[in-house]
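User: What would this chain look like folded?
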Amino acid sequence: MFRNQKTFALVFVFTLAIFFASASLALAVDPTSSGFQLVPCDNTPQSPCDYYAFIRGVTNLINFFIAFAAPVGAVALAWAGFKYLSAGGDSGEVEKAKGIFKKVTIGIIIVLAGWLLVQTITSTLLKPGFNTVLKQ
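Assistant: Here's the prediction, encoded as structure tokens.
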């Protein structure tokens, strides 16, 4: 799969960097603070776990994945640009780089379209009084 040990080491270090960066984002959340919380309730009278908390939790989860997907997409685009520039006139390598550009662009469009869909639905579901419509 890898041509040499140097390539394997580079991929391994890059994978570890992504892993630790995402873990640090997850661990940086302090549930006692008023900042970002993936789960927006703690079942107290001030923050009950109800319908609205569930919808806010879904929105928070989607926003978390968007925050994770954006840097990954940027790195993939940078990698494709590097491959394109270092192709040295090799048409096979140029086509591979163009394929990476195309796939990453489609992926980013899908992620943003999904975000738009979820934001539209959750903003409708979080309107005041919508919960009473469900109880009827």
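Helices lie at 5-27, 51-85, 91-125, 130-135. If you want, I can go into more detail on any region.
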